[in-house]
Specification:
The protein is of the alpha+beta class. It is 22% helix and 27% strand. The protein contains six helices and 17 strands. Strands 5-8-9-10-15-12-11 form a seven-stranded mixed β-sheet. Strands 3-4-2-1-17-16 form a six-stranded mixed β-sheet. A two-stranded antiparallel ribbon has the order 6-7. A hairpin with a 2-residue loop joins strand 8 and strand 9. It is globular, with a radius of gyration of 20 Å. The two termini are 31 Å apart. 42% of the residues are buried.
């Protein structure tokens, strides 16, 4: 099997790069994002984790927790293996994690421990206690700075709910938006900004988990639009420091590639030909969506809420520096429900058995010529 993979990699790389001259070699790194779907430990913490305790609604025992870690490690170990079989993701953004401790447990899993992952994590004000984080391979990526940037949003200032649109159905989600009773602030996940050197080249990564569609898509859309504008503001601040900054923004956006939060808030472009300046952002997952791909299923139809976007500075095809090559959705058969009402959906957690996630991970490849 490994020989077949190596043969496949050879022919893919040969087809892509033969026009650039024979004998060239390339460094390849996989950059991925994965919503872990409720990665909680079994310890009663200060957050609202009662459901995820041994005596809680999910009957979340130590055995189930360990199985969940093993499941996630199996997926992470294989993400990007089609074109990069010798390594798991160098950079992995993640969401729906309870605390730093669950990430420390995850990177110690037998399938991952030899990768020597470092962790960047901050506790966020989300009322469920779920955060975002970044795992990075220490031998390839050296963080120089990191910070969590809060998303400050408020519900109806008068404290009155808008009349619900009959067509705007509730989303079946456990990621319920919570509003403060004192000031109407909606407490949600921070956006995580990490700057560092990938094999000596500076890049910036933003990890996101935008507000859910709790309460309905239309009613909750302004929250995600605000998240998109914050994301754009962070990127603009980086470009103000370095007009040729290399930026990757990734996450579970709870919106599709076509939604206002992405198209207007970030200003993401569907095609490379639309990129005119370094600050323009390319979203390879928009084209993938229109070709029928999905990272999750929402209202019985597939969509891509999990996205990775890159700045124009990654799309110049100057392989003397790291460049974007291609993107994908990792959805191996063992990660997919095979029976019942949700056949074909991601194999998620249940009260009887820990699954993988209700999202498929997404990834991109970065390439750089070895001189």
């Amino acid at each position: 099997m490994r020989i077949k993979k190596l043969i496949a990699v050879f022919f893919v790389l040969f087809a892509i790069f033969s026009s650039n001259g024979q004998g060239k070699k390339y460094n390849i790194h996989t950059v991925a994002f994965y919503n872990f779907e409720n990665l909680f430990d079994t310890i009663n913490g200060p957050n609202n984790d009662e459901e995820w305790l041994p005596n809680g609604a999910m009957n979340w025992t130590g055995k189930k927790y360990k199985q969940k870690l093993h499941n996630l490690a199996r997926v992470i170990n294989e993400i990007g293996s089609t074109e990069n079989p010798s390594n798991s993701p160098t950079l992995l953004g993640c969401s729906e994690i309870e605390n730093r401790g669950v990430l420390e447990d995850l990177v110690k899993e037998p399938l991952l421990i030899n990768r020597d992952y470092g962790i960047v994590h901050f506790d966020s004000p989300d009322k469920r206690g779920i955060d975002v984080g970044l795992l990075y391979q220490k031998k390839h990526f050296k963080p120089t700075s990191y910070k969590n940037i809060p998303l400050i949003i408020y519900s109806n200032q008068e404290g009155k709910e808008d009349k619900k649109d009959k067509k705007d159905k509730e989303e079946a989600t456990d990621d319920v938006t919570t509003t403060s009773k004192t000031d109407n602030r909606v407490y949600t996940r921070d956006q995580l900004l990490v700057t560092g050197f990938l094999d000596g080249e500076e890049i910036n990564i933003i990890v996101n988990h935008w507000p859910s569609r709790s309460g309905g898509e239309k009613k909750s859309s302004p929250f995600r639009e605000a998240a998109g504008r914050l994301n754009r503001k962070i990127m603009d601040s980086l470009f103000a420091i370095n007009p040729n900054a290399k930026i990757i923004t990734m996450g579970d956006l709870n919106d599709g590639t076509y939604n206002k939060s992405v198209k207007e808030g970030i200003g993401a472009k569907r095609k490379k030909e639309e990129l005119k300046q370094p600050s323009d952002i390319y979203n390879p997952f928009e084209e993938m969506f229109y070709k029928g791909n999905a990272s999750l299923f929402w209202r019985d139809s597939g969509d891509i809420f999990d996205q990775i976007m890159v700045s124009e500075t990654f799309v110049r095809k100057d392989y003397s520096t790291f460049c974007y090559w291609k993107a994908g959705i990792f959805n191996k058969p063992y990660m997919i429900q095979t029976t019942g009402q949700y056949k074909g959906y991601p194999l998620r957690n249940s009260s009887s058995e820990p699954g993988f996630s209700d999202h498929f991970p997404v990834y991109i490849y970065l390439l750089k010529e070895i001189k």
